[in-house]
Design brief:
This protein has one helix and five strands; from the N terminus they run E-H-E-E-E-E. By secondary structure, the chain is mostly beta strands. The chain has a single domain, classed as Hypothetical protein (Archaeosine Trna-guanine Transglycosylase, Chain: A, domain 4). It has a five-stranded mixed β-sheet. Strand 3 and strand 4 form a beta hairpin. It is globular and about 30 Å long. The N and C termini lie far apart (about 25 Å).
């Protein structure tokens, strides 16, 4: 499954550099192991840059209700 999501510029950079290897997200959709996240950089509007990551780990341990930690692995980066 593919999920298109917004991501703020400071987090986008860390993910695109491979430094940030997780996402904490509201559990408002059916995430699954191996799913693809297309993280579109958003600074109030789309910048045109995005990074594709794959979910390699998931846990709700010690999270607020309805939130999940997604371990991610970069697939590729695109855009300006």
């Amino acid at each position: 499954m593919v999920h298109d999501l917004k991501i703020q510029p400071e987090f986008f950079e860390s993910v695109s550099l491979g430094i940030k290897t997780f996402e904490i997200r509201k559990l408002d959709r059916k995430y699954g192991f191996g799913d693809l996240l297309i993280l579109h950089e958003w600074d109030g509007d789309y910048t045109g840059r995005y990074v594709e990551v794959r979910i390699v780990y998931m846990t709700t341990y010690k999270q607020q209700a309805d939130y999940i930690v997604l371990g991610i692995e970069k697939v590729k980066k695109r855009g300006a």
